[in-house]
Amino acid sequence: MKSYDVVIIGGGPGGYNAAIRAGQLGLSVACVEGRSTLGGTCLNVGCMPSKALLHASELYEAASGDEFAHLGIEVKPTLNLAQMMKQKDESVTGLTKGIEYLFRKNKVDWIKGWGRLDGVGKVIVKAEDGSETALQAKDIVIATGSEPTPLPGVTIDNQRIIDSTGALALPQVPKHLVVIGAGVIGLELGSVWRRLGAQVTVIEYLDRICPGIDEETAKTLQKALTKQGMAFKLGSKVTQAKTEAEGVSLTLEPAAGGAAETLQADYVLVAIGRRPYTKGLNLESVGLETDKRGMLSNEHHRTSVPGVWVIGDVTSGPMLAHKAEDEAVACIERIAGKPHEVNYNLIPGVIYTRPELATVGKTEEQLKAEGRAYKVGKFPFTANSRAKINHETEGFAKVIADANTDEVLGVHLVGPSVSEMIGEFCVAMEFAASAEDIALICHPHPTRSEALRQAAMNVHGMAMQI
């Protein structure tokens, strides 16, 4: 039995970052991962491949429609879907190989196989050939991530009824793609296939898209996506899906009750969210149980069992790769006896549609529920010089500040490249910046980031460019 200071079960953003940090701190560490490549869902069938297709499909649409022609660039592009998928796969391979290099650099052992607990301080790894290896560790970190949430009455076969993994590898552009779920995954992957030529209909149980996101920001995104051709059926539920020879027949009903209707599609993407993955972990061997949501509880990343830790999607908090990475570092630092905290109030969220949506901190709805007085400053991208020159003026920057102290409480952006700009406010809010602090900081001109400053200025009615 090989002994380590730390054994990590799972090689996704939580697991691999925990392993690297442990190696940096001089701990002996092993990372158990059953996939043939490291990186988990994010690198292999999630964040990274979806961004590759989002980028490629944006360029294809720009070249196919009026955008290039308006700029004086006249081309007639042809879609080579096989090549688009090939370059996506090549990018993913490069990233996963990069993690293997970082493991070697930081003396992390990759134990290939599926790990399970075998009592406190012990992990059994089952390899692809069925052989088993026992590992011993002072501390074990569970970082097994999540999987797509199934929908009752709709059986995913990844032929006609697909999950997010299937939607990243369709062999042809759908004539009609129905997306069940108007969250991040559904909107991003739906927008990819719409740009490539599919008719896309999004079905959502709630009466709005992007639940939990600032309502005004979400409505603005929905308006932009509708203008692009995506159709939305809100307040609706799918009760049945029947696979046919060349498509799927869906039965829909109003969420509040009412007459059913039938919708035909050649592909259906089920994207109603993700759930923690704990299958086969043998949690009972150490006395651990999941809650009713399937999650493992934690207190500063510790479970109720000494020496067993938990991070990432398998525990509470937003299911985001960067949240898992933050928890990974904090967890390993604590294992090494160092103080470390994760600020869960300042974990940004992004939807990589076009326009993009980015958010951090409190929404107006949350502040109203808390009874906290606040002020709002907004600035439209229609008034931003760089956005106007680039013909990408949809959306706005919105800054919410405490009415008494002026501390920035929340920032909600919808517009061009806002995923790259939200980090400015993450830093500012970590240091409890006021709206006035941002308003007094010089921003380069002409850039889209000036909209952030103008929104902060407008908290006090000082915006000069509207």
Protein topology:
Elements: E1 2-9, H1 13-24, E2 29-33, H2 40-45, H3 47-64, H4 66-70, H5 81-105, E3 108-112, E4 114-117, E5 122-126, E6 132-142, E7 146-148, E8 161-162, H6 164-167, E9 176-180, H7 184-195, E10 199-204, H8 215-227, E11 231-234, E12 236-244, E13 247-254, E14 261-265, E15 267-270, E16 274-276, E17 308-310, H9 321-335, E18 349-351, E19 356-361, H10 364-370, E20 374-380, H11 385-389, E21 396-402, E22 408-415, H12 422-430, H13 435-439, H14 450-458
Parallel strand pairs: 1-2, 1-6, 2-3, 6-17, 8-15, 9-10, 9-15, 10-11
Antiparallel strand pairs: 4-5, 5-6, 7-16, 12-13, 13-14, 18-19, 19-22, 20-21, 21-22
What does this structure look like?
With 466 residues, the chain is α/β, with parallel strands linked by helices. The protein folds into three domains: 2-148 and 275-344, 3-Layer(bba) Sandwich (FAD/NAD(P)-binding domain); 161-272, FAD/NAD(P)-binding domain (3-Layer(bba) Sandwich), CATH 3.50.50; 355-458, 2-Layer Sandwich (Enolase-like, domain 1), CATH 3.30.390.30. 31% of the residues lie in helices and 26% in strands. The strands form five sheets. Strands 1, 2, 3, 4, 5, 6 and 17 form a seven-stranded mixed beta sheet that branches. α7 links the parallel β9 and β10.
